[in-house]
């Protein structure tokens, strides 16, 4: 066999391999788009359907379909951006992403669902998240695994380079017909397994493993990360009068702001931030007015043509 013949055969094999790879990529993309269409349809029912059983059945189908979709090789790179019913937040280092969503209960409360998907570059590795909120008596003092998750829909992931690296999560939690919650949580990995909560939030004479805010459902609360200042800033919540100081379902912003400042791998509480010195430049959604799914569902139904 001549050198020229060898080069020709090598070139043909390389072309065939490249063609096969492109064909595989095209097939995977077609699969993922088909799954995405199904997830978008099920997600609308899961949020908007007035029938409680239909919402829950749609959620079970949604979970099965999502797992099938994530099992497609390299699904980590697929954004699923047509599926509006879920929040998909990727860590800045692309190590993992969290897919989170909720289903409203008959009483106006929520149950949260989700999964942590690791970036393997190929086969699926994920950790399903099981909402343990109703049984968690002291969430600010508790470290949990993915099977006892303090459920929320996350909109920001903040990496922290400390002796033990971890990521801060900002999330919307909802709560009841009377109040809403937001949460600052932590995810870290021990021997490859996710762990939620870490005693790194210091302030007011206490160290918290996560920070939970509760306020009246009809108001909005600012909770966002200011990247260039390593600062989490949030509304200061107060009761409308002293008699309601133990009723967080009545709390609302009082036009002042507090925060947590990162220092030596820990977050130190700061009172009365001057917002004139706080940049508006953020890396992700601000979470200033996360859409209440119940209100959005009512809005969506109102926009439907008559007869639906």
């Amino acid at each position: 066999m001549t050198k020229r013949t060898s080069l020709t055969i090598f070139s043909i094999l390389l072309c065939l391999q490249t063609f096969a790879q492109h064909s595989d990529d095209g097939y995977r993309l077609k699969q993922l788009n088909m799954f995405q269409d199904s997830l978008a349809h099920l997600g609308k029912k899961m949020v908007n359907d007035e029938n409680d059983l239909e919402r829950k059945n749609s959620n079970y189908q949604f979970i099965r379909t999502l797992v099938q979709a994530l099992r497609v090789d390299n699904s980590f790179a697929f954004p699923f951006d047509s599926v509006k019913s879920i929040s998909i937040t990727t860590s800045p280092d692309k190590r993992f992403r969290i897919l989170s969503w909720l289903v409203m209960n008959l009483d106006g409360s929520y149950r949260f669902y989700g999964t942590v998907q690791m970036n393997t570059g190929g086969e699926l590795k994920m950790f399903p998240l099981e909402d343990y909120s109703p049984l968690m008596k002291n969430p600010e003092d508790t470290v949990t695994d993915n099977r006892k998750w303090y459920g929320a829909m996350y909109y920001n992931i903040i990496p922290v380079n400390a002796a033990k690296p971890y990521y801060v999560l900002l999330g919307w939690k909802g709560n009841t017909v009377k109040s809403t919650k937001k949460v600052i949580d932590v995810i870290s990995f021990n021997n490859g397994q996710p762990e939620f909560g870490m005693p790194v939030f210091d302030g007011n004479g206490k160290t918290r493993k996560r920070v939970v805010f509760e306020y009246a459902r009809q108001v909005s609360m600012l909770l966002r990360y200011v990247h260039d200042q390593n600062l989490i800033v949030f509304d200061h919540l107060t009761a409308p009068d002293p008699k309601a100081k133990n009723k967080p379902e009545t709390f609302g912003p009082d036009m002042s702001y507090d925060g947590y400042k990162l220092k030596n791998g820990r977050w130190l509480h700061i009172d009365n931030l001057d917002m004139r010195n706080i940049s508006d430049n953020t890396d992700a959604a601000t979470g200033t007015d996360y859409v209440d799914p119940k209100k959005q569902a009512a809005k969506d139904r109102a926009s439907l043509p008559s007869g639906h």
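The first strand starts at residue 87 and ends at 90. The helical segments are 3-48, 52-70, 293-302.
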